[in-house]
Task: structure prediction
Amino acid sequence: DAGVIQSPRHEVTEMGQEVTLRCKLISGHNSLFWYRQTMMRGLELLIYFNNNVPIDDSGMPEDRFSAKMPNASFSTLKIQPSEPRDSAVYFCASSLVFGSRDTQYFGPGTRLTVL
Amino acid sequence: DQQVKQNSPSLSVQEGRISILNCDYTNSMFDYFLWYKKYPAEGPTFLISISSIKDKNEDGRFTVFLNKSAKHLSLHIVPSQPGDSAVYFCAASGSNNAGNMLTFGGGTRLMVKP
Result:
């Protein structure tokens, strides 16, 4: 299994531009988590899904952020418009079973730089 | 308000010695704790976990200790190896959380010197 796949690995954009980050879950997993890592706030949960349905989006910082799961294996995190303070590493993670203590498997992350 | 704290941003240890990484939490509803290891340019990977019904869990060179009264857990690595050099995150989840939502600490960078 290839594990969780994220693209792009690096993204550099200018303030005001739309940014779309992509994530492919491990086959058969049904829970999806988006995290953001910054020096100031560490690793923080933004939103998570179960069976394509958003369960908790209380970590999403602003309305500029949105996330979707158009199907069971794929998710996008969109920032529109982007701002310099959005610069961070964004991780997605998937797990097999929702509602249990199942291990979360992380992707390699997307390093976003907003100029 | 950080519910999970790792107060040491970095730790340097000689190869073969013990590494002790510490983590404190404030939310008394947390009942499951995990350690993740992260290498540069990679995502965190699960290392070891412990439930609040236990006070110790061991897996090879890695042992996690939980002190519920102090709301403190620690990860011991014995003996430390240069390949253990990474950032270590502790994480916690609670029975009041749906699913397996995790709250992470800020991480501790471990450097094991040959």
Notes: The mean pLDDT of chain B is 93. Chain B touches chain A through 22 residues (CB under 8 Å). The radius of gyration of chain B is 14 Å.
